[in-house]
Amino acid sequence: MTYCIAVSVNDGLVLTSDSRTNAGIDNVSVHCKMHMLPTIDDRKIILLSAGNLATTQAVLDQLRRDIKDNSETNLNNVKYLSEAAEYLGHVSVAKQHRHASTGQNSFYPSATFLLAGQIENEPHGIYLVYPEGNYITSSKQTPYLQIGENKYGKPVLDRFLKIDTSLDEVARCCLISMDSTMRSNAGVGPPVDLLEYRKDSFVLNEYYRFEEDDQYLIQMRRIWQEKLSEGFAAMPQLNSCDAQPFPSPYQ
Amino acid sequence: MTYCIAVSVNDGLVLTSDSRTNAGIDNVSVHCKMHMLPTIDDRKIILLSAGNLATTQAVLDQLRRDIKDNSETNLNNVKYLSEAAEYLGHVSVAKQHRHASTGQNSFYPSATFLLAGQIENEPHGIYLVYPEGNYITSSKQTPYLQIGENKYGKPVLDRFLKIDTSLDEVARCCLISMDSTMRSNAGVGPPVDLLEYRKDSFVLNEYYRFEEDDQYLIQMRRIWQEKLSEGFAAMPQLNSCDAQPFPSPYQ
């Protein structure tokens, strides 16, 4: 399994991904799921990937070859991020379809992507590209997208992320969301990659990689645990409400 | 959908359930999922239910009829909670099977239960009864069981619940877990039922029902939100770690 988050707020982008891949429970390995594409200087495009590893690698290779070969459509000549998402969807569907088999032991090597970045004077943004090739973007009300094991880490994002949250706060929120998911699901694991991109900067110089025993993560977990405990302690006692009779067994 | 939690700690039991049921997204109604069985005074047995509503009602009716008819096996004559779980599994499989259909439009009205309580001098406990009729119980390391939409609310349980957590703290933790799930999944909704059972008491006088606009829940959410914000603010700045160069596009 996988867990990746992309957040687009007023100040820019925050991307977070785990690194655990598995083919069955007994074949677990480490693969970075955050990929920068080698584009020209007027743009930055980063992909996060979930799903079949062969498909994601085939897609990345194709995108890079298309750039090198200056193909009719490639990430260097698209003018909009939505165009990049559409092109990514097209490549992804082709690669999945190529290795699909039908019949009794049918197999479909599906993959899902988050595409994030900024092109020239266009606004920064994030796109979720489905295995079917179509895509969605985020909104002011829901400034994030997730792929992979998204449920465990969703509540903390829902409670905290707003369109005007600062990039550093978004980053800490994403690390908590990732840490919650790693605790509750063995299919998601370190190292954790984190990238903050300040809008209009066109540089990727705030990239962090956290190993399992990273001191920052350990400190973060300790502080979080303390604040949870304080939160429970600060809540009013339940007996301050009135207990009610238990509903009759025949209701 | 549904979300129910049963926790068994040293001091006793805490049970929590939502009340939203739906047959399709356009047929949503309110049904309490916490059921006391009308047993004799030497025992208390409570069920939480998830899944097909017709099956859960058929199972509850059968359990009540078996008690009234003093059947060979019923909840008044089982000596152990595990025996009650086995009997519940047996009844559940029979009710599901009766209304199942096979073929092209196959239908299986499956249901999952949490059984909790205490019988005479036996220890208190909780059991999760699968649709297949088999069951598991909790452990000292993982003192809780969940049914329904379990992922959203799992991290806060994993972070906080220990075998020696007090009943009141467990209750607050379960309410946060439930609140997180209701925020992130529209299939889970109020009213929320909460029951605390102190071991060896054989009384159910700490039962609470929280409507959507309950003042306690509103206060709880506000305090939780404040503590989350404090937690993020208390975490060290990310630039206290060293940012790294972004991995080369060809890695």
List the helices and strands and how they pair.
2 copies of one chain form a homodimer.
Chain A: E1 3-9, E2 12-17, E3 20-22, E4 28-30, E5 34-36, E6 43-51, H1 53-68, H2 81-98, E7 111-119, E8 125-129, E9 135-137, E10 144-148, H3 154-160, H4 167-184, E11 192-198, E12 207-210, H5 215-234
Antiparallel strand pairs in A: 1-2, 1-10, 2-11, 3-4, 5-6, 6-7, 7-8, 8-9, 11-12
Helix pairs in contact in A: 1-2, 3-4
GO biological process, one term (chains A, B): proteolysis involved in protein catabolic process
Organism (chains A, B): Methylomonas lenta
Protein name (chains A, B): Peptidase
What does this structure look like?
Chains A, B: Pfam families: Proteasome. Two copies of one chain form a homodimer. By secondary structure, chain A is α+β, with helices and mostly antiparallel strands. Chain A has a single domain (3-229), classed as Glutamine Phosphoribosylpyrophosphate, subunit 1, domain 1. The first copy, chain A, contains five helices and twelve strands. In chain A, strand 7 (111-119) and strand 8 form a beta hairpin. In chain A, helix 1 packs across helix 2 (81-98) and helix 3 runs antiparallel to helix 4. Chains A and B meet through strand 5, helix 3, helix 4, strand 11 and strand 12 of A and strand 5, helix 3, helix 4, strand 11 and strand 12 of B.
